Amino acid sequence: MSVAWLDEIKWDGDGLVPVIAQEEASGEVMMFAWMNRDSLQETLQTGNAVYWSRSRQKLWRKGEESGYQQRVKAAYLDCDGDVIVLKIEQQGGIACHTGRRSCFYRQWQAGQWVEVASVLKDPAEIYSKNGTRES
Amino acid sequence: MSVAWLDEIKWDGDGLVPVIAQEEASGEVMMFAWMNRDSLQETLQTGNAVYWSRSRQKLWRKGEESGYQQRVKAAYLDCDGDVIVLKIEQQGGIACHTGRRSCFYRQWQAGQWVEVASVLKDPAEIYSKNGTRES
Fold first, then answer.
1. Which one of B55, B63, B82, B119 is separated from A121 by 20 to 30 angstroms, measured CA to CA?
2. Mean pLDDT confidence for A41-62
3. Which among B76, B79, B107 is the nearest to A98, CB-wise?
4. Is the ipTM of this complex over 0.90?
């Protein structure tokens, strides 16, 4: 199906586009993932972030296992039409499968990557149902 | 040369890692680009963002043509070790080669991508020396 706003996106060779999820309220970059056509369409139609899992090769409805959904407040496309920023509201305040707020919890300090954010919830608790790692 | 903090990064099949440049002061996501090993090393050693231009297949020292350099204030690595966020200070307040502040100037509104940020400086002026588009 041809949908004009989807056709404007320059999908990469795998039919994907990189997506940056930024918490609307704090401005913090929470995670980075990929979307295909179906996932972006579902995301903007439902208002809940749906990514494409490259490792599992299937739609990944963020929060379907953890409950930590991302409500989409706004979406932006870049100049080249090949990257998307989502402004989101992070349910539960945890975006990362490690149980941290954001996935970007290691800071470069004098030649080392140093953990600067703590685990808010044990992943074993987050994924107690089936133990898979995607959140 | 083996450098521990570079070896921790999971470079993709092309030897690249995606990089999100976020303005430190405002939290605004300014642009998205790629780095290879050399460009990341130079970036963190000099404190000026250096990307890898996939279209030109060469190092792209951000601002070398436009003067709009990005001073790197902090760098973060994600949980999977395959995405980087840079907190930057954007010289001249313009990151996008279109002359806008940020590359993410089109917002999704009811099924359309609508321009929501204006051109601050004519690209013809920015690139008057040689007319190339990389900033």
1. B82
2. 97
3. B79
4. yes
